[in-house]
Amino acid sequence: MIKYSEYLGNKRSEYMRLLLIGDGDESKVYKYINQGQLFLAEQDNVTLAVAMIVPTSNSNIGELKNIAVDFNNQGQGIGSQMIAYILEQVRAQYSVVLVGTGDADVQNILFYLKNGFRFEGVRKNFFDSYNKKIFSNGVELQDMVLLTKNITSN
């Protein structure tokens, strides 16, 4: 059975391997790793997935900054269950959750749409600030696609 929980410890860097699945730029991950809330999905003392929600400049909006499922456990619904768990946990804090993904990350976009997120906008040239080029589906990522989910009306 998979257990979902908020990580309350102070050794977040132990989850870097998984966090780098969700965000390929280690320097970017280190900038937000100690912000917000870190959530885990664990089974038999093995971490299968991680996710981070960080506050934004708008106190009503939390950003799903990172969500990643270990490669060997993808496609089993763990990510969707993690989203459902997180949204329930942060409902008292935020009315909206924002997430961004690469413009060519079609699988990610479909994942968020299936989990009730809707298109909100685009951050042009977002990936220009990354240390190395990131590709998805053979296409270099350039813009970040933004999606939001209202969590007060669920």
Automatic annotation (TrEMBL):
Q: Which UniProt keywords apply?
A: Transferase
GO MF terms listed in the record are: acyltransferase activity, transferring groups other than amino-acyl groups
- Gene3D superfamilies the UniProt entry points to: 3.40.630.30
Positions of the N-acetyltransferase domain: 2-152
> Which Pfam families does this one have?
Acetyltransf_7
CDD domains per record: NAT_SF
Name of the protein described by the UniProt record: Acetyltransferase (GNAT) domain-containing protein
Organism of origin is Weissella hellenica
